[in-house]
Amino acid sequence: MSPEHDVTLALQRVAEGDRHALDRVLPLVYEQLRAIADRALRGERPGHTLSPTALVHEAYLKLVQLERVSFQDRAHFFAACAGEMRRVLIDHARRRGAGKRGAGAEHVPLENAVAAAEDRPAELLALDEALDRLAALSERQARVVECRFFAGMDVAETAAALGISPATVKRDWTVARAWLNRELAP
Predict the structure, then answer these.
(1) 131-157 as b/e, with b when 16 or more CB fall inside 10 Å?
(2) What is the DSSP string of 129-172?
(3) Are 119 and 92 in contact, with CB atoms under 8 Å apart?
(4) Sequence-distant (≥ 6) Cβ neighbours of residue 32 within 8 angstroms
(5) Separation CA 142–CA 130 (nearest Å)
(6) Chain-centre distance of CA 14, in angstroms?
(7) Partner of 86 for a Cys bridge, out of 47, 98, 106, 150, CB 3.0 to 4.6 A?
(8) Nearest CA to 13 among 54, 52, 71?
């Protein structure tokens, strides 16, 4: 039996209510999750207090603490993990003492927002708030940003994770980036 098949079976058991099945998933997908976390932290300054391993563990702990958890497939599971990694990064920025969110902060393009987060967590918090506003307008576009920006997924991975076409991912990514850059402008 292939590891992919094992993951699929375990995720099906999770959907059926077997909470312990999620514990069997982690060893099977750990390296992939670590790669996603590594991409999410890429560009951070050396010595960042969150390592890819810590980010994986924090996100996983948040997933297992959810009351109801159900994943349609592997791609959906990875998209959920990307969302949890985003929340871990945001929580980390908040704990770093962000003060007033964005007050007096210089304009930081979307691509540089996470890289700036360790030294200036207000920028990451401003991005999180803008992403929440985007989700109110278009949940799908917000999910595309989570997958592409926070998890570092490519177009094909994002399309698979969200169950949409690569063309839709490209379109949503373009629109969402433009909208977020406008929202984050001074």
Answers:
(1) beebeeeeeebbbbbbbbbbbbbebeb
(2) HHHHHHHHH-HHHHHHHIIIIIS---HHHHHHHHT--HHHHHHH
(3) no
(4) 78
(5) 10
(6) 21
(7) 150
(8) 71
